[in-house]
Amino acid sequence: MDPVIVVGAGPVGLTLALALARQEVPSVVLDEGPGKDEPRPARTAVLREDTAALVERLTGVALGDHGVRWTGWRSVRRKQVMSEITFDEGDPGPLHIAQHVLTGALRAAVADEPLVRITVDSRLDAIEQERSGITAHTRGPKGTWWRGSYLVGCDGPRSTVRKLQDIRFPGRTAVERHAVAALRAELPWEGRALLHRMPPWRSSGPSAGEVTARPLPDGVWRLDWLLPPGKDLVTPDILVARIRETLAGWTDGSTPAYDLLDTGVHTVHHRLARRWRAGRVFLAGDAAHLLGALGTQGLDEGLRDADNLAWKLASAWHHGHHEALLDSYQTERRAVVAARLRAADQVLPVLRGSGALRHIVPGATRGHEALLTDGHLGRGTVGAPGAYTDSPLAPRHLEGEIPVETLPGAPVTDVRVTAEDGSFVKLRDRLGRGSLLVVLIAPGTGVWDRKHWVSAGVMPRLAAAVTALPHPAELLVAEEYPGAPAHSVLLVRPDGHLVTALSGVRPADLYAAAEATVGGAVKEAEAGSGAR
């Protein structure tokens, strides 16, 4: 069968290609550029724990060695500390990393992956779809026709794929603008990120704004100043004045020595593509959505797009084209991003000084700080990763379903599990392989060798039920899971979202849940052409 064509060699496109390769699906990555990225210290990404873990699984690179996991967060208004959070192993902070470093790690992994072919200086200019596949044409020194099974546009805000498919991209332009600087300096809160609203050294009014400081390795910081509405030019002199003023304000009046590495102006747009799928063509990342006001991170959502789509394309590639499973990508991911955009648009007038929606957070300055903190840290309504609670893949009417602390459709908690070979691993380490995960909660198994319990109790019956599932599945055992009683069974999707929790071994419920999760893909493919 033909490879998947991935248009765009940014973090989302490269992540998708690697995720497909891990599930034994070949891909061709069309890179419009020369195949390398210019180092830009002021262009960075903030990743939640699970998206950072996704990239680490695919690249084999410990991102914490190349970025900074925040040890804490502080929110300040004028001179008053409004909130302070200290992160620990049980509540890890986000990872802050330069985007060119992240992309470099992905490119290095792609170079070592035989199932991924990357072609540089290849600009897409035509797409043709047929019932059996897709053809794409690129121009440039290596201009040619490419044949694929599916095509995914990961080609950014000005997506050629989106335009060729005539997909509208409505939304709001210039929701926020920020002046940005990356500099090396000693600040008084090493490893901790800071949000400072209404700093006392600034005049009152819209220009007072806010400034954030986020640490990077080697004593480097990224500083962002919220700019007033409009298109006023930010000159180098104005930016240097802001840097000196801000550093002096944070260090009791005297500007400390600093080394300015990079600058820029970051403009935030809010847009959402009307469709994320057109036949065998899909959109992901900035080609499908733009968000970023209030500290929210669009790249993090783009990586979630890739994770969601990869296992569905892999299933279709191996087992045959299946509409319901492929349609679920748009249904799940677009709903999640749309909810975050709505939340941000609702609270923006409150946080930026308009009284139009002040009733949402009645007179609560601390409430304002909490909303901004949620955006920056990936929590709450504004920032938290979405759950696919209304997914068309969710099973219905399971008699044995029980509640646990993770809602169906939400990302699972990363607990230690025993794999089929007897090794102890983290649950997230088993994700992204194309298989469903079945997790038995069995207290005490962690202290006994697997050979003593693998053939005892409910294990033989559960193993037989897993073998009979309509999609490949891996059986794991955990001593505990938040809110799950002993002998409960969890079914987890390949992208780490909980399908259901069952009370005990219930083969019929487990089969029905697994069949719903893959949309009946295997059964339908076998009934149809089934051709690869």
Overall mean pLDDT: 90
Number of discrete helical segments: 13
The low-confidence parts are: 354-364, 521-532
The Rg value, from CA coordinates, equals 24 Å
Short characterization:
With 532 residues, this protein is of the alpha+beta class. The chain is built from 13 helices and 26 strands.
Task: Explain what this protein looks like in three dimensions.
- The chain is α+β, with helices and mostly antiparallel strands and 532 residues long.
- It is 29% helix and 27% strand.
- The chain is built from 13 helices and 26 strands.
- The strands form 6 sheets. It has an 8-stranded mixed β-sheet with strand order 6-5-14-15-16-13-17-20, with helices on both faces. A 6-stranded mixed β-sheet has the order 8-2-1-12-19-18. Strands 24-23-25-26 form a 4-stranded mixed β-sheet, covered by helices on one side.
- A hairpin with a 5-residue loop joins strand 21 and strand 22.
- The longest helix has 29 residues, at 323-351.
- The chain is globular and about 70 Å long.
- Mean pLDDT is 90; it is low at 354-364 and 521-532.
Features:
532 residues, alpha+beta, eight-stranded mixed beta sheet, six-stranded mixed beta sheet, globular, disordered C terminus
Draw up the topology in text:
Layout (H helix, E strand, L loop, with lengths): L3 E4 L3 H12 L4 E4 L13 E4 L1 H11 L8 E2 L2 E6 L2 E7 L8 E4 H13 L4 E4 L3 E8 L2 E7 L4 E5 L2 E3 L6 H5 L6 E15 L6 E6 L12 E6 L4 E7 L9 H15 L7 E15 L4 E2 L2 E3 L5 E2 L7 H22 L3 H29 L13 H13 L2 H4 L32 E3 L5 E3 L9 E6 L8 H4 L5 H9 L5 E6 L10 E4 L5 E5 L4 H11 L3 H7 L5
Helix pairs in contact: 1-3, 1-6, 6-7, 11-12
